[in-house]
Every structure is written in C-alpha cells, then in structure tokens.
Specification:
Elements: H1 11-20, H2 23-29, E1 46-48, E2 51-53, H3 55-72, H4 76-92, H5 96-120, E3 123-126, E4 139-143, H6 149-161, E5 166-171, E6 180-186, E7 193-199, H7 217-224, H8 228-243, H9 251-264, H10 269-284
Parallel strand pairs: 3-4, 4-5
Antiparallel strand pairs: 1-2, 5-6, 6-7
Helix pairs in contact: 1-3, 3-4, 3-5, 4-5, 5-10, 8-10, 9-10
Length: about 300
C-alpha cells in the first residue's frame, strides 16, 4: 500500500502544534541574537490549553517534525519510534493536546506496517524467542506455550528494532471447549496490563491437538496466511481492552489506561482512536482530585 496521493496525517500536527503553540517563540528566535545582545534564560513555561510553551513542548514538536519527514519518505518504523517517544513525553507532561495529535501519525504508520506484514503471506509459529542475530522475515507471528504474553511484547520490540513488518499474537493453551485464548500484555505504570479473549481457531486447525508448531504446513497456511484470522483476533483483543476502561473514570486517568492497553494491542485502530478522543476530552476536563487507581489485571500469573 502506497501513501502516494494520500494527505500526510502529520501535516496538521506539524503546522498546528508548532505554529499554534510554539510558533511565536520560534519566530522570535529565527533571526538569531541582535548584534551586541546577550543570551537570556528561557522564559518560564506558560500553560496553553493542556500543554506548555517551553523546552518540553518544543522537544515533542521536534520529534514529531522528524516523524513527519519519516512518514513522507515511507519510513514507517522511524515514524513509529519517534511518535512513541513523543507520546511518552506528552503523557508525562499531561499535555493532552499533543497526545491526541501524536496518535494520528502513529496509527497511520502502524497501519502501513500491518499491511506489509499481511501482504507477505507468511506464518511463523514460535515456541521460543529468536536468538540474537537469527534471521527473521516479514509476516504473521503466532506464539504458543511455553511462551507467555510478555514474550509477545518482547518479540514485537525486536522486530520493530530490525524494521521487520510483522503482526504478533500470543496463544495460551487451548481450552477444553477447543477455544484459543489470545492474550496481549502492555507495560503499565504500576504493573503490566492484560487483555484476553477466547476465539474459535481457523477451520483448518480446529481439530488439531498438540503444539501448533507440529501442525501440517498446509493447514497453517490455509488457516492463517491470508491474515483474516489474525486481524479478526486483533480486533477482538482490542475490543476487550477498550471494555476494561470504564467511562466513569476521570478522562486523564483513562488516557493513561488506553495508552497502556495500546501497548498491549498496538494494531487495534479503534483503541488508538479511543485514545485520541479521550485525550481531547481530557483537555477541558477538570484535573482529577484523586490519584490514579491501580489497573485491574485478570490473572497476574497468566501473562
């Protein structure tokens, strides 16, 4: 899938954030210091909406300008890396406007990587993490026991660092009813967060018992290679994550919850859109009086 002819989703961010919030500062500094003038200390940050004019905001904007350039040259992994760094900084500064804006290019870059992974039409069933230096290819990765949910996040980070397009899911032991439990684990502020669903396996693998790594290659190819089951599983997992975030919680707390679950299910677009919408809600919502609660975990021993 090409981005040719498609408006750059970072355009509004590059012009809106930099121009609308820090443009005045940038304009005043563009010409450099006047002859004989002495440098002065930066002004104290001034709150604008939910963000700040000052060092942190300009650093976030600089990251996103680089992300915009990366997206234009179709370097999706660089876009993802820079966007995640900017998102982390914006969340720590409670800069909800920038959080909302950053989700757009991040979602677009992930969509492109997901499409490339699906187009590869290759399936890899893993029972252990690849060793350092082991060759890896683009495609769909299904992890099964003895691997656990956290291994999925580790593999995803490894593939992204190598700029390998992949969609990663983690399967837990098949239930007595023949369902496949699929789990996603994200890194949380207090502890890892978990999303989990039970799904019917692909028809070609419904009767298989034992490790999937031992399943006939043609059954794996028929059931998984076109990406249909993988994407439906990812949708179900992300929907389960969204349901765990209660609407009555303060908007600022829900932003953090959704961001953590997006780490668990990064390829779910509705989850990304929910994060953007909630960040915009948090821009005008009252600052929560209470501290953020600890997240709920289904089973801390089952990740």
């Amino acid at each position: 899938m090409s981005l040719a002819g498609v408006p750059n989703p970072l355009g509004a961010l590059a012009s809106g954030v930099t121009g609308g919030v820090t443009g005045g500062m940038a304009g005043g500094m563009a010409g450099g210091l006047a002859a004989g003038a002495k440098p002065t200390a930066p002004a104290t940050p001034v709150e604008v909406l939910s963000g700040y004019v000052g060092g942190d905001a300009t650093q976030i904007d600089a990251l996103m300008e680089r992300a915009s350039a990366a997206l234009l040259r179709m370097d999706y992994f660089e876009t993802i890396e820079l966007s995640l760094r900017a998102l982390d900084r914006a969340r720590r500064k409670r800069d909800w406007e920038r959080v909302a804006r950053i989700t757009m290019p991040l979602q677009e870059a992930r969509r492109q990587v997901r499409q490339l992974a699906t187009d590869a039409q290759q399936v890899f069933v893993l029972r252990s993490l690849p060793s350092r230096g082991q060759p890896l290819d683009a495609g769909l990765y299904l992890l099964e026991p003895p691997m656990i949910g956290l291994d999925g996040a580790t593999l995803r980070d490894m593939l992204r660092a190598r700029k390998i397009s992949a969609l990663v899911l983690v399967k837990e032991p098949t239930t007595s009813a023949g369902k496949w439990p699929i789990v996603g684990v994200g890194r949380g502020e207090f502890e890892n967060v978990v999303a989990r669903v039970q799904l019917d396996p692909p028809a070609s693998l419904a009767g298989h018992t034992g490790p999937l790594a031992n399943a006939p290659a043609d059954a794996l190819q028929a059931g998984l290679a076109d990406g249909t089951w993988f994407q439906s599983a990812q949708e179900a997992l992300g929907d389960a994550a969204i349901r765990k975030v209660r609407p009555e919680w303060p908007a600022a707390h829900r932003v953090d919850d959704l961001a953590e679950y997006l780490d668990a299910v990064p390829d779910h677009e509705k989850l990304s859109q929910a994060l953007e919408a909630t960040a915009r809600e948090a821009m005008t919502a009252p600052i929560p009086a209470q501290t953020r609660r600890r997240p709920f975990v289904d089973n801390p021993y089952g990740i």
